[in-house]
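Researcher: Re-running this chain for the archive, since the previous output was lost when a drive failed. Same request as before.
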Amino acid sequence: MRLLDELQPHFDKGGKWEKYAALHEAIDTTLSSPATVTTGTVQVRDSINHKRVMSIIMLALLPCIMMAMWNSGFQENLTLNQMLAAGQISQLPGFSDSTSLLANLITGAGSFLPVLLIALITQAIWVTVFASMRKKSIDAGFLVTAVLIALLMPPTAPLWQVAIATSFGVVIGREIFGGIGMNFLNPALVAWVFMSFAYPGSMSGDAVWTAVDGYTGATPLAMALSDGVPSIMAQGITWQSAFLGTIPGSMGETSALACLFGAVVLIISGIASWRIIASILLGVIGLSSALCMFNPEAMSPAWHLVLGGLAFGMVFLATDHSATAMTIKGQWIYGILIGLLVVTVRVFNPMMPESVGIILLFGSVSAPLIDRLVVNAHIKKRKMRHV
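Model: Regenerated structure tokens:
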């Protein structure tokens, strides 16, 4: 924008607003292309950059965002209509028709947008503070992180808890390591795990999945693991509804279909590694199929893939470049390890059904070691050839 370019001298070194240079550059690069760009042939140049990567990820997240608003509103309106039919309430508030697309979107936006706004503002504050301390520019990735954090939250998450979780995820998960590209943990994942441990009642309690006072109910995954898949089918939850995402859960993780669209976008664009997604699927399907052979009543692979946060975590968190294995063999090991652990914890510790976040964090911490072992094995193999 011309106005931002005209104000540029005031933010340069020696200008009266020098200490706000990082904030000015963040706004300038977000709203438009900056006036100063790389020229000449001395640089390694490519059609992709960090801003384009974030734009592609946002495109991949759009179905999850729309589903987060629609399903949150649908679950709330559906519950209100059921309470009205049971005589628990005398009348319905506005925009409570669960059969109306617009009504569900408006109602769900009332739950999703405040969480997103708090996550965005909180992260922007911390990113600006650290950028000013380091006298460096603000990277364009904080919008994606804020969206991921919002999608991982249930519709009833208290906003002050979202702010604290976002602060922990951004500061401890990224900024203390030097910012974007220097961290080895996904800040949204760190915020999710922090929220699960610090405020478990807000993340896994029975009354957190639908924004209606007085309504309680466990997630379909928790019910399926404790009482078996027939228990959720008896309540009208089919595999198709779980795949589409018309079930209770965190706002952005219920729809495997929306996550599938995101996976296609990320894989075709080359942003995400198909090996990681394929290897996680291999681990989940392999172990759950083996368990079904010994126990026919065990949860089938098809149900594992559509319940809980597995699909969302597999597509948008496990593939984060800064938090995953880099070597080809390492990516296969990393993904299979995550898939095996997800099924193991779900089956043998049903008290922790929503354990995907913790397992992904363990995978991120293990990724450097996995890569190191793969590289060392390759070096050793090459040495043996020359002996």
